[in-house]
Specification:
Blueprint (H helix, E strand, L loop, with lengths): L3 H4 E4 L3 H6 L4 E6 L5 H12 L2 E10 L3 E4 L2 E4 L3 E10 L9
Antiparallel strand pairs: 1-2, 2-6, 3-6, 4-5
């Protein structure tokens, strides 16, 4: 179990995610070992909203070659959170 403020890293602020924010859908970058229950608890406690559904996207790191050495980029995890009512206003700050 992860603490609420440690689970969420940052909201994803792109044109596509901000336009869907009006519909009650928000996207967050989260810690790799967080579960849906941890994410739900964190969003509900931090933003005082009711979460209806959560989808999780795992992006595996890509393999890269730099100066003949093989490595890979970091893996990422995103949470797509659908709210049952209301929305989160990021313009005033978090």
């Amino acid at each position: 179990m992860i603490l609420e403020y440690d689970c969420l890293i940052a909201p994803v602020m792109t044109e596509k995610t901000m336009s869907s924010g009006k519909e009650g859908v928000h996207v967050f970058k989260v810690v790799l070992n967080s579960s849906k229950a941890d994410i739900k608890k964190a969003v509900e406690k931090i933003f005082n909203v009711k979460v209806a559904k959560i989808n999780v996207i795992n992006k595996k790191g890509k393999r890269r070659v730099f100066r003949g050495k093989i490595g890979c980029t970091k893996s990422k995890k995103y949470a797509v959170v659908r709210l049952s009512d209301g929305a989160i206003n990021f313009e005033s700050g978090i």
